[in-house]
Amino acid sequence: MNQQLSWRTIVGYSLGDVANNFAFAMGALFLLSYYTDVAGVGAAAAGTMLLLVRVFDAFADVFAGRVVDSVNTRWGKFRPFLLFGTAPLMIFIVLVFWVPTDWSHGSKVVYAYLTYMGLGLCYSLVNIPYGSLATAMTQQPQSRARLGAARGIAASLTFVCLAFLIGPSIKNSSPEEMVSVYHFWTIVLAIAGMVLYFICFKSTRENVVRIVAQPSLNISLQTLKRNRPLFMLCIGALCVLISTFAVSASSLFYVRYVLNDTGLFTVLVLVQNLVGTVASAPLVPGMVARIGKKNTFLIGALLGTCGYLLFFWVSVWSLPVALVALAIASIGQGVTMTVMWALEADTVEYGEYLTGVRIEGLTYSLFSFTRKCG
Predict the structure, then answer these.
(1) Which of 2, 37, 122, 265 sits 20 to 30 Å CA-CA off 208?
(2) 51 Cβ neighbours under 8 A, 6+ residues apart
(3) What number is the average pLDDT over the span 299-313?
């Protein structure tokens, strides 16, 4: 159904990504610093854990994709996961940032593995149906582009808001004080996340409905294998996200140990996330209309790459130039992030066109795993 979506529906859908990013942004901005500086987990152990859990996430995403493709209820195929999967996800956000500080180092590492793996599984079971929901809400290109833009804006604003809310709270705080800060904010975010997911559930409808038998795992994997545009999109998204989150993850260390001023953390996050969102939002629709989604994505990725390379080159000796470079990268990032979601929805349609098999859940699970690897 080529249904034009109302702005109320689009905004309601985007609130789900605000809740998604309570988990995603907290991990990107604060988790490594929390493990090493607050929980007392060794840097090598924490880094190894974050890498190894990605392997687990690959299986979690495939599992979630298969579960999503097998479900059909009176609420639809994807929306029930927003209703029933939210509470476990939000609970694990709290648990991940609740490492018992009086435990032995080995016990802390085991706890970190278990809770972070639990968070990854719950995130897959909510985020994959959430992302796949866009393909079922409309087939109209303009509405899909607006959904993608709304997601991008929601994600960027969430990053900025969390940095502004939590960053100053941990400025020059002792590890003992930061424990209380993280406990307080994760509980607040968990409650807010459940409310936002419920609003998303109530605001959306699955207008593109197909009642088909679930294909076997072998057929589903063969369908994925033939979907070359999906693999190209995943590779492109991986490169974009590696550069983006490399800066996000290192920002707190950069301002603390290089600039010796954690107050600048919120400035970096603001420039990296909000500048690109504001600048790219009016640019993307015109670019897509003129040169298409693929070329728009490529131009944004090239701009972001140049900006990030310049940022890492000059960040030690010139903060003003570094901020300009980060702003350039942010605009490129905003363009690619906006177009990325619309392209993913298109790959579902392409896979169905090519093979006759529609696998929204498994298609998005591959894309989701790529994002996690970034």
Answers:
(1) 122
(2) none
(3) 88
